[in-house]
Amino acid sequence: MADSHAATPVLEIRNLSAGYFGTAVVRNLDLTVGRGEVVALLGSNGAGKTTTVNTIAGLLKPLKGEIHFNGQLSGGTPAPTMARRGIALVPEGRALFFSLTTREHLRLAKTKHSASESELLDLLPELKKCLDRKAGLLSGGEQQMLAVGRSLMARPKLLIVDEMSMGLAPVIVERLLPVLRTVADEFGSAVLFVEQHVALALNVADKAIVLSHGSVVLRGDAANLRQDRELLRRSYMGELDHEHPLTDSPPSAGKKTGPGLREPE
To answer: 260: which DSSP letter?
Structure first.
């Protein structure tokens, strides 16, 4: 996994509050993602994860705080502009055109700085057999791979993926999530992803942040978070009411309870 990142983060969020119609869903969030770094944004349903990534991508305006992208203040900049600057969002639900083929999706996403089709297929080889099939005929896992591949065509500086595993079997998620690690390592992109499969997410990420009721209650290196399953359980169950300092603690005694915390069998 990535060990060092550029001095200036690709994404830096300071004291961000975001929400709808003036009501904050996310409060006082600080977050950074560096080049070649993978950060998992975790938490139970309704914690504020999707609100956070939509605000970063420009779909929502911040209520308070700052978003810096590539060193420039960008909070409130419309989504199309942020996309041109290098943010690619794979939204919950994938937003594919079911009547178009995989190849047509990739061609529509081309820019003058695009990755070549062959380069993308080397990264996502499972798409090779799907090139001439319409998106509506693909399996859920193939659709998700296409959604990621379409976003990568523009070589994004920041790739954001909201719920890679939505509606997919755990065995499929085990094959898909490592793609995000490869994107960071081979493309050099910063990667921020929302995920419910906590154990799998922590195997891929460099760092993780856990939100509960819109506030950060836990953050740290993924390897250290993986060791303390009891602390993760407490963060998901709403038992932490403020950000908990993470230490290099020994593994807990085999806890496997709590939402999304069971290892795949």
So the answer is: T
List, for residues 9-30, the tens digit of each pLDDT value. 999 999 999 999 999 999 999 9
CATH ID of 11-95+156-236, from 2.30.30.40, 3.30.930.10, 3.40.50.300, 3.40.190.10: 3.40.50.300
What residues contact residue 30 under an 8 Å CB cut-off, 6+ apart? 13, 14, 15, 16, 216
Helix (H) or strand (E) holding 125: none
Sign, CA dihedral 146-150-151-152, equals: positive
Amino acid at 75: G
CA dihedral 193, 196, 201, 202 (to 10 degrees): 120
- In whole angstroms, give the CA distance from residue 202 to residue 167: 20
The residue among 60, 4, 28, 9 whose CA lies nearest residue 219 is 28
Tell me the whole-structure pTM to 2 decimals.
0.84
Give 127's Cβ-side CA count (13 Å radius).
Answer: 26
Q: Which two tokens stand for residue 55?
A: 């605000």
5, 11, 62, 161 from 8: Cα distances, Å: 8, 8, 22, 22
pLDDT tens for each residue of 232-260: 888 877 767 667 666 554 444 333 334 44
| Domain ranges, ordered by start, for the chain | 11-95+156-236
Residues 156 and 109 sit within 8 Å (Cβ to Cβ): no
